[in-house]
Specification:
Blueprint: H1 3-29, E1 32-38, E2 46-52, E3 63-64, E4 72-76, H2 82-85, E5 102-108, E6 115-121, E7 143-149, E8 164-170, E9 173-178, E10 192-197, E11 203-205, E12 213-218, E13 224-229, E14 245-250, E15 258-261, E16 265-271, E17 274-280, E18 286-292, E19 305-308, E20 315-320, E21 328-334, E22 341-347, E23 352-355, E24 366-371, E25 377-383, E26 394-395, E27 397-400, E28 407-412, E29 415-419, E30 426-429, E31 433-437, E32 445-449, E33 452-457, E34 464-469, E35 481-486, E36 496-498, E37 506-511, E38 517-522, E39 529-534, E40 538-545, E41 553-558, E42 565-569, E43 580-584, E44 592-595, E45 603-608, E46 614-619, E47 640-645, E48 652-653, E49 661-666, E50 679-681
Parallel strand pairs: 1-28
Antiparallel strand pairs: 1-49, 2-3, 2-25, 4-5, 5-6, 6-7, 8-9, 9-10, 10-11, 12-13, 13-14, 14-15, 16-17, 17-18, 18-19, 20-21, 21-22, 22-23, 24-25, 26-50, 27-28, 29-30, 30-31, 31-32, 33-34, 34-35, 35-36, 37-38, 38-39, 39-40, 41-42, 42-43, 43-44, 45-46, 46-47, 47-48
Bound molecules: 2-acetamido-2-deoxy-beta-D-glucopyranose (NAG) (4 copies).
Amino acid sequence: MNIAQTIFFATLLLLLHASATEHQNSKAGGGDTIVFTTLGRPRYEFDIFALSTSRPPSISGELRITDGESVNFNGYFPSPSPALISLLPDETLIQPEDSSPLHLIYVTERNGTSSIYYDLIYGGDSNSDYKKKRRSVLESPSRVQVPLLSGFDHRSGMTVNSFKDKPSLTGEFLVYVSTHENSGEPRTSWTAVYSTELRTGLTRRLTPSGVADFSPAVSPSGNWTAVASYGERGWTGEVEELSTDIYVFSTRDGTHRVKVVEHGGWPCWVDESTLYFHRRSEDGWISVYRAVLPEIKPLTIDSVIIQRVTPPAVHAFTPATSPNNHDFIAVATRRPGSDYRHVELFDLKKNEFIELTRLVAPKSHHLNPFLSPDSSRVGYHSCRGDANGRRSPLLLLENIQTTTTDLSLFRIDGSFPSFSPAGDRIAYIEMPGVYVVKPDGSGRREVYNGMAFSTAWDPVRPGIVYSSSGPTFATERTEVDIISIDVDAADTSSSVRRLTTNGKNNAFPWPSPDGKRIVFRSGRTGHKNLYLMDAEKGESGGLWRLTEGAWTDTMCSWSPDGEWIAFASDRESPGSGSFELFLIHPNGTGLRKLIQSGSGGRTNHPIFSPDSKSIVFTSDYAGISAEPISNPHHYQPYGDIFTMKLDGSNLRRLTHNSYEDGTPAWAPRFIHPDDVVLPRTNDSSCSFEDCHWLNKYPTLKGRKISC
Ligand SMILES: *[C@@H]1O[C@H](CO)[C@@H](O)[C@H](O)[C@H]1NC(C)=O
Ligand SMILES: *[C@@H]1O[C@H](CO)[C@@H](O)[C@H](O)[C@H]1NC(C)=O
Ligand SMILES: *[C@@H]1O[C@H](CO)[C@@H](O)[C@H](O)[C@H]1NC(C)=O
Ligand SMILES: *[C@@H]1O[C@H](CO)[C@@H](O)[C@H](O)[C@H]1NC(C)=O
């Protein structure tokens, strides 16, 4: 066994040991399983690649530098410090075939949770043979992999899952963002900057409490860190460009914190007084700017000189710099006429773009460039494609490792999952259709072909699934009907029954535990309120109104013990888009608010636990976790998955990522990660939508066109 494998297996053993303990505990105590949706994420087959900045870009010149496992992104080329090297086994550096290995630090989502890894890669030398193969993978003897930080890091003593992002290294210290500390305020991001001493694991928070900092970058000397931050102001729900400002503080301890730029994000340093960043310009184009900080301290915002760097007619963003390189920067761009995000250089002397990745892989997104310290290489993340025959199978259920022994968490490749009463089947939506599948991923088949959303199983009549047939997010007057589907019917032409027929917006059906009635929301009076109807005959068998008011009550579910119906409502501020969760008895009494969103916030999709004592729901309680522009479709209007007890206690955040998590389901029985093995399909297309708002281009005159 070589060194790389030894390290890998040591890590694996630790993980497996933790997992085995968890398994036993869960079996003993029962344990809960929650399944949820993440928009786009199952298709993000990201690896990190690198191109030379001095040679014309070519397919053969593109090097894949991560290992094709999981989703890898937001890389950083460190100057290898003694502290970093000390993490490697002694023999590692003696490798005859290549004297100059590549050092890479990056974010990886192995085991479903984000970690920061350090890879030492041999064979990165430009003259090596393997570079002649397209996107070649470096086989295991050529790579040493060291996990630096994970969601459950034993060295830092952190015991909760968290999102880790945007690493940089300065000497002994890794600087990064993490979401492991609750901001304590609804709708306030948990993202903050930390530094961890590599040798000791000692971790220090650099962001003041109550403040969220994104996208940290450390100056070449290591003395200063720049971040995008709201300061005390906080996130107000924006999901496109954030209205952050740029702050600078001492990397050592977070002191000397000064706002240096009003309106800007994704800072990076060229020298101790020159920063680049992105912002949306007044003419509508997203552009890169330069801020020159005065040499004389104390630093004040008035003494900072700001110049636009990239011209209109191209969106240019997420800039990357290298120390003392005043000749060029790297950027990601969206050009009118192209549907893809590409990495380009921008020549600061000639003021022109130099295209890179479009010439290599035109029909693929390339994101978040970063430059090597000597400027010779630009890295970025992009789809791995089927390099060397390696494709990640698309799992129906991807396990998200958790630290809690009583919970297993899965991301489903579909939306609106729900479990059959015995827990042996899942119904879910895959536009346009309703599907049924076993939890291990086998037996998948379509049971309804057409636009539909939400699923719920009848608790009494076998194989009956309820859904809403029609478009989502539609007005009260749009035709959406409650349907029941007999998923075991031999004759599919008669398996679907329409329970409402009034041509209004009827949706989110959920049956009572005795299977006699259904609660749903309907726009039949011009407002979306809650109703009950007969589960078999539909509204013709009896219709009762449960809530009434000029507001929206929606996303209802019935507790398994029959006592409560939970729903989301904007009744406290109708039409504002702000939703809180409420409970009501099925007889219309006992209405109470279960959870208050932050101002303007959204809390949605409540579903009860099998014991009826808790709910799982989606909420923007934890704000957003990264600059939305830094990943595709990367905004979080619905936020993360949370659970809480019906008495309002024990609020727990289950998901930590910068994606859009939604539509949770609480399984009636525990599903162990090992029970879910089968890939859903062989196909891994890596097709997803980039931030849709990047498709909007202003005209050159500065007038915005909305497409
Ligand atoms: C974690 O992920 C790795 C790589 O994807 C996988 O090989 C390993 O089995 C996973 N570990 C556990 C405990 O699930
Ligand atoms: C960084 O800080 C150290 C310690 O305060 C100081 O000696 C050094 O000159 C600083 N370097 C730069 C480039 O400002
Ligand atoms: C309504 O239902 C609740 C819960 O089942 C019950 O406690 C209450 O007595 C009922 N009220 C009426 C007026 O029936
Ligand atoms: C996966 O691909 C192989 C070979 O192309 C094929 O034999 C197999 O049936 C496929 N499996 C699925 C689940 O599509």
